[in-house]
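Researcher: Sequence recovery benchmark, item below. Answer with residues only.
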């Protein structure tokens, strides 16, 4: 634990006194959790000053890194923390993560885990200055689109197996349509936004 703590504090940027005590607490807790789970981030030491800045600005980012040190290790090792995603990235990640999921409980768990990882990534990139505002809004909107879409595909198949295909009056098959309203519809979703959805059949 001392080694991880030493690595973290060696690279931390001096902070205002009002923030320093809080960040010290996060650093201590992260070092303990990382060592407990065998997470090593020393090879990414050059990125730590910016990550600590993000911790200073966001309790959400800091607390989730402390609770899930493997998540931060994965974000660093994969390179995802330093790159912008293309439009289909979230859909591909969800497709891979949901492969083999066969019940709603597991579906919900996988969605929560992936959303947490990606929201920490988006927030950290934004607060560290690695992403422009337009990218941050766009990626949050892409993520918010991809999650219900991936869930809908699975739920449609499960419900069809149990209840049969939903049909229109003329007998043609229908798929539930999810409409994103407001900032989601305009792809301007921010961190404080709810998503407003309308569910309908064609």
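Model:
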């Amino acid at each position: 634990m001392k080694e991880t703590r030493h690595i973290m504090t060696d690279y931390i940027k001096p902070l205002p006194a009002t923030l320093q005590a809080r960040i010290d607490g996060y650093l201590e807790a992260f070092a303990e959790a990382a060592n407990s789970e065998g997470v090593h981030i020393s090879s990414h030491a050059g990125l730590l000053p910016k990550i600590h800045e993000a911790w200073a600005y966001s309790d959400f980012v800091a607390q989730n890194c402390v609770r899930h040190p493997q998540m931060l290790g994965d974000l660093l090792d994969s390179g995802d923390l330093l790159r912008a995603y293309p439009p289909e990235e979230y859909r591909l990640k969800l497709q891979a993560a949901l492969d083999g999921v066969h019940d709603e409980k597991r579906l919900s768990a996988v969605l929560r885990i992936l959303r947490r990882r990606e929201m920490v990534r988006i927030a950290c990139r934004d607060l560290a200055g690695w992403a422009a505002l337009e990218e941050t809004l766009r990626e949050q909107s892409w993520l918010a689109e991809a999650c219900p879409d991936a869930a809908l595909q699975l739920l449609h198949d499960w419900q069809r197996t149990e209840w049969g295909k939903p049909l229109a009056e003329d007998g043609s098959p229908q798929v539930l349509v999810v409409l994103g309203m407001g900032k989601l519809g305009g792809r301007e979703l921010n961190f404080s936004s709810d998503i407003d959805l309308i569910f309908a059949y064609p």
